[in-house]
Every structure is written in C-alpha cells, then in structure tokens.
Design a protein that fits this description.
single chain; mainly alpha; Serine Threonine Protein Phosphatase 5, Tetratricopeptide repeat; 12 helices
C-alpha cells in the first residue's frame, strides 16, 4: 500500500515524467504500468470537479430561496415593523430564521446584517453585535458599515475600547471619500470618551489632511482644538 501511495505522489509531483515518456514514444508502456494509479487520479479529479459544481449550484439555489424569503421581512424592516422583520408574521419568515436557514448564501448573510440593524434599533446591543460580527461580504461599503454599527453598539454599552477597535476597522476597510470621514469622526469621539485625547487629535488630523473636501472638515477642526486643550490639562 505504501509503495502505491509513493508512486501516486511521484506522478502528482513530477509531471515532467509524463512529458518525457510522451516524447520518447514509450507512453503506451508507461500508461500500462501506471493505469491503476492514473484511474485513481482521474477519479479524484472528477470527484473534485463534481463537488465544485454541486457546491456552486447549491449556493445559487440557497441564495435565490433566501432572496425570495427576504422580500416581506425587508418590507417590514423598511416600515419600522422591527419585531415582524426579525421574527416573521406567522406566514412569512423573519430575518433571524432566514439567516439561520440560508447563512452560507450572500442573501442569507444580508438577512443577518438586517437582523443586526433591527436589534441595534431596538436597543438589544448584544444581539446586534452577535449578528453583525458574523456578517461578512464582498461589498466594501456594507462590510465597513457593519463594522461601524458594531462600534455603535459598543458605544451604547459604554465599552469604548471595543468601539474604538471596530471604528478603526470601519475606517481602514478600503476607505472612501464619502463614508470614511464619518467613521473617523466616530472613532475620534470614542477616543475622547475613553480620555485618549492624543489619539482623538490624531484622528481628526486624518480627516483634515486626507479628506479636505469632506463635510466633516469644520467639525474635525473644531473638535481637534477641543481635544488639544483637554490633552494639556
């Protein structure tokens, strides 16, 4: 058995051996000697390809199903019927159940994001953190927004250290001129409330120096001066 495994490893790691036999005209002889091992390799490749295609099909189906399930829940979310959005209406599923059932799909993950926002609005900060911290997305803006919302939840809990951590993640996650200054303002405030006035000043300086066209510029200058005074006390 060990000898067969060694031969299989040799073929996989030394493809030049196959080429050499092809070029020398000894391929038929070489194939006859190794046909059992080649069958194992071929069968493994077919299995892997099959699993990849099945996985893609399964995720596409899950995503479509989750999108269909989410329609009514998102309507409730947008209407501020947050409990119905979270838990359903007895006929349609809520965001929590959709997230649990389709969590591997992008739509299922988005349901979890919406659920986290609902909990945040309802003042259930631990639940909000739980759902938003599980969220991950390829969409740059939504992912950064999720980090910022987790920071908001920690701010409501007066946990400024964790708020700082997540506002930093939001501000550093592929920065944009439109949203990053907002995250930096929140970060600076968290530093200030944590009595870290020096880092608050440094954060305001980032807005002033790197986002001079931001609507937050004047506020950044004003609060920078305030924190400079606090740092000297």
């Amino acid at each position: 058995m060990a000898k067969k495994e060694n031969k299989l490893e040799e073929i996989l790691e030394q493809p030049e051996a196959i080429i050499e036999n092809l070029q020398s005209g000894k391929f038929e002889e070489w194939f006859e000697k190794n046909k059992n091992i080649i069958s194992i390799i071929g069968g493994g490749i077919v299995l892997v390809i099959g699993l990849i295609f099945f996985g893609k099909y399964y995720l596409q189906t899950q995503n479509t199903d989750a999108q269909n399930e989410m329609f009514q829940a998102v309507y409730y979310f947008e209407s501020d019927s947050l409990n119905k959005a979270l838990n359903g209406d007895g006929v349609n599923k809520g965001l929590v159940e959709i997230s649990d059932d389709y969590g591997m799909s992008q739509a299922g993950k988005l349901a979890g994001f919406y659920a986290g926002v609902c909990y945040l609005k309802l003042g259930k900060f631990d639940e909000a953190i739980d759902f938003l911290d599980r969220f991950s997305a390829n969409d740059v803006l939504v992912q950064a927004r999720a980090y910022s919302l987790i920071g908001d939840a920690y701010m409501e809990k007066n946990d400024y250290s964790n708020a700082i951590s997540y506002y930093e993640k939001a501000s550093k996650h592929q920065p944009t001129k439109q949203f990053t200054p907002d995250y930096l303002m929140k970060l600076a405030l968290a530093y200030e409330l944590n009595k870290d006035y020096s880092n608050a000043v440094n954060t305001y300086n980032i807005i002033i120096n790197e986002y001079p066209t931001s609507q937050k510029l004047n506020d950044a200058k004003k609060y920078k001066s305030l924190n400079e005074a606090l740092a000297q006390q």
